[in-house]
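Journal club side-thread
Mid-discussion, someone asked how the predicted structure for our own chain would compare to the paper's figures. Pasting it here so we can look after the session.
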Amino acid sequence: MSDASAAIQEPAPDGVNTAGARLFEIPRVSAVTALALAVADMIGTGVFTSLGFQVRDIPSGFALLMLWVVGGVVAMCGALSYSELAAAFPRSGGEYNFLSRTFHPAIGFLAGWISATVGFAAPVALAAMAFGQYFAGVVPGSPPLVLGLGVTILVSLVHLSGTHRGSILQNISTFMKLGLIAVLIIAGLVWGQPQNISFVPSAADFGYITGTPFAIGLVFVLYAYSGWNAATYIAGEIHEPHKSLPRSIIASLVIVTGLYVLLNAVFLYTTPIDELKGQIDVGLIAGRHIFGEAGGRVVAAFICIGLVSSISAMMWIGPRVTMVMGEDIPLLRVFARKTGNGVPAVALLSQLAVVAALLLMQNFEAVLDFIQFALTFSSFLTVLGVIVLRFRQPDLPRPYKAWGYPATPFIFLAVTLFVLTHLATVRPLQSLASFCTMLAGFLLYAISVRHGRKAP
């Protein structure tokens, strides 16, 4: 990647205070790195931890795999919609940028607030928790909390050293992760001992797929796919974003959906369901059944490397959202500060502090339930914005238009609304806590607007 740079002014969303907006450097992130970033952000904690929670209420192999197929289709519909917005508004910030332009700066601020507080910090904490659990499978007796916090700090230090080193870490760890998954799939199909489970649909499967357990299972699955929009958060740093972003996002989802379905099929094919129920380290358990005790430790070690890739992706893109908010809003201007090599250091260290606080909770399922309502709601509004913009601004230049419109955004909206409804019903306390977090964002926006009016 070239270090050559020139200053260009990026337009801020309409209605957003641009006092003190920074001059952006020419993007230095390639399409390959954007693809690796999306793959890394998706393939992480979710696929190596979700199955243990899903099998508790869904005993059907077909219904369990359909969870991942449906999740992939929904994520693809969302990705096609996000790609249209990212090509039309190629600025870093993700939902903060899109919703500010589509609806109102307050809505954009809300999405940015979610991302800045828990949207990225919580998934990092979940990945760090999983890292500690899997590492304990490699070296028994290792302290999971210390390990999780330690790996997050080390990754953060790499990203503080500059985008170039961060890109190297991202690419290497991501390709190692993909290699591990390929080995697991092939080895499981060749050497695994088949379990008493069928992947052929039965009459009972319709009830499983339309029931509440399936909807709750989708919460875990959509979390596992949630990195599909990762590249949109650094759109302002990507080379030719109107071309590279749609290609990177769509290609990453095609790759990940295939791997997710095959990997979960191998887990179910090789490992008794009773051993998976309620367990976080399903990859380690399946690895022991495929390779034996020693081989299982090797698998756990490679999964740890894969989790480093996920932590790296989120510690890279999360601070960029906070940084862009700091550029637009005087009250948050401290988060726009960058080091000499272009890293938003204050934003990154702030996210690291939130990760540390969440790690102290040490409750994987509670953290996931807490963040998923807010993240799903934010994605729902963003995809809805594609439809709104088609009516409000039909002449808006759109270098890329969502394939399959209007079916694709409607599919995404229908499924995510289904999940939100069931979350609010089955997990009312966690959903309420998530909603209160959003209300706090609106309060902070009101304060920031008042502060902005008084700013010189």
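Post-session note: The radius of gyration is 21 Å.
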